[in-house]
Amino acid sequence: MSDAIQAVRGMNDVLPDEAELRLWLDGVVAAWFARYGYRPIRTPLLEHTGLFRRAIGEATDIVEKEMYTFTDALNNESLTLRPEATASTVRAAIEHSLVYDGPKRLWYAGPMYRHERPQKGRYREFTQFGAEAFGYPGPDVDAELIVMCAALWRELGLEGIRLELNTIGSAEERAAYRADLVKHLLAHASALDADAKRRLHTNPLRVLDSKNPLVQEVVASAPALMDYLGEASRAHFDGLRRLLTTAGVAFAVNPKLVRGLDYYNLTVFEWISDRLGAQGTVCGGGRYDGLFAQLGGKPAPGVGFAAGVERLVALLGAPVSTGPSAYLVHQGEGTLEYAFALGEELRAAGFAVVLHAGGGGFKAPMKKADASGAALA
Ligand code: HAM
Questions:
Q1: Cα–Cα distance for residue pair 305/301, rounded to 1 Å
Q2: Whose CA is nearest to atom 25 of ligand 1?
Q3: 64 C-alpha to center of ligand 1: Å?
Q4: Does residue 205's CB lie within 6 angstroms of at least one atom of ligand 1?
Q5: Taking a C-beta distance cutoff of 8 angstroms, is the pair 256, 209 a contact?
Q6: Does the C-beta of 91 come closer than 6 Å to ligand 1?
Q7: Ligand 1 centre from 260 Cα, in Å?
Q8: pLDDT per residue as tens digits for the range 136-168
Q9: Cα dist. 335→187, 266, 329, 341, 356 in Å?
Q10: How far is it, in rounded angstroms, from Cα 173 to Cα 167?
Q11: 296-328 pLDDT tens trace
């Protein structure tokens, strides 16, 4: 066995018990998106590397160190396995002029790839389902996306998933804030760790969500982004909070929530479970009104989220396998042909039938029938 080839680190096989549960979840998710008027879209797993560099940002963890990037030697171009699907969905919307005749609500699901350090709840191949709403500038769709997540958690019977919410304003407001934040961080540079010192120059807002207690102390006395927001940004955030409150969705405003991708503006949010340890964020999203233009398209507002399927499945717990309706045992000369035909007849009538294969007496097949979970043999 020692020379047996194993799966790539951080990339997991989904065995039948869990695969059945995930197939069921896929159905629930598709029906839920349809109830809110979201239509499916599918984009390739591979994209030009430049798409993610431009959309997610050069100074993010994803682009700096987590992308599966390689040169396609046949055309000598740099390609990347998608680390997320917002960039691809916006690219597709621009390429196919999806918003020319009005706004669009879209959803997707599938594998994403990030070269992170694997641990429980963090994998190098993982699955997301997500929604992207294009062409809606107001906080109503931000609220809709959040309310629909709350409805899904309810439908799945998932309790204790809390909502953290923040606004990061416009690019101009953030630039003014960033300058003052950097000044503050420089004044306390001796208390910063290496990571914070590096980010101070590349992506200072990410210092806000540092897990290091010493850095957190510096952050606690830093200026607050909220104080740099203009009228329009405040009104957007107020509108969102009002809609959520009216809809009965509880939230906590977390002024340090900045998210790990650079395309966001205004609304950002995360759904977090405390039952999953360090990787407790089951869903994250926000608004990205600059992304269409950034990717060379006609400007259009965007907002969306993506949820991590592996993390949700961990919360869902043990799968319930139902087994087939019947296990068909045959014994003796000529019975195999009859069993084959009977099996087809039953399946045509809608029953799930497992035909015993591999011979044996009567006892062994009956044991297999038992083990299959079938209601009848
Ligand atoms: P994200 O926060 O990077 O956002 O990922 C969304 C969710 O995917 C996370 O909350 C987590 O549940 C799951 N996830 C991320 N990385 C991993 C991993 N290595 N292993 C397992 N699960 C993981 C985005 O991807 C944005 N595109 C979301 C979005 C859509 N924003 C606007 N529209």
A1: 14
A2: 84
A3: 16
A4: no
A5: yes
A6: no
A7: 9
A8: 999 999 999 999 999 999 999 999 999 999 999
A9: 86, 69, 9, 10, 11
A10: 11
A11: 999 999 999 999 999 999 999 876 677 899 999
